[in-house]
Each structure stands twice: as structure tokens, then as C-alpha cells.
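Box 3.1 A note on notation
Throughout this textbook, protein chains are presented in two layers. The first layer is the amino acid sequence; the second is a C-alpha cell string describing backbone geometry. Keep the layers aligned when reading.
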Amino acid sequence: QVQLAESGGGLVQPGGSLRLSCRASGRTFSGAAAGWFRQAPGEEREFVAAISWNDVSTYYTDSVKGRFTISRDNAKNTVFLQMDSLKPEDTAVYYCAASSRRYSLEYNLKSGSRYDYWGQGTQVTVSS
């Protein structure tokens, strides 16, 4: 069984930065596709960013392109989401997810149904 634990959320002013971390336990993150999703109050969960199982490809939703960066540190068994130039509309609970399959295609990595393991979420609030 895999457990994912997110950290790094908090309150930040518009234009500020945060780095979310997602640490896996129970199995290695290496070789697993991973993604970040978010859910704002009253909204459906949406895709934010993903990294393919072999780290070759990364994908982002249009609203965060150029501002967010997903990366992985296999030695720390951790996936990161660096968020810069944050906007109030980025406010949401952010969830980390991992798949047991070696997905690399965009349409797979953007679909929440492709992920087998989910973290408990971390709140990100962007407000002045």
C-alpha cells in the first residue's frame, strides 16, 4: 500500500510563491506517474500538473503554465510543485496523486481516474 503526504501549503499574498511537497511511503515514487490536482470550494476537482513515470514529460493546465513547475526527487521519494506568481484564483485544496502504471501520455496523466493513490490534501490560500 502507498501512502502520500502533502505539505507546504499555507497563506500567501498575490504574486508570492509556495512549494508543495508530496512524500510517498510504502513504495518508491521512482517509475510512477504522479500528478497534482486541486479543488476549490464549490468546484469540481481539476488537474493542475503531472509528470510521466520516466520523468521525460510534464503537463500543466493552461492557467498555471509558466507559473507552476512539477518535479521529482527520487532519492527523497518526493514530488514537488513549485508555484510562483500565485493568484487568488489558485486558492484551493491541492492533492497529490500517484499511479501504479507507467503512464506517459497527456490524456492519461490529466485524468484523475488514472491515479490509484491520493494524499489528504493541503490548503493553499492566496489573499492580500
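The two ends are 40 Å apart (CA to CA). The mean pLDDT is 94.
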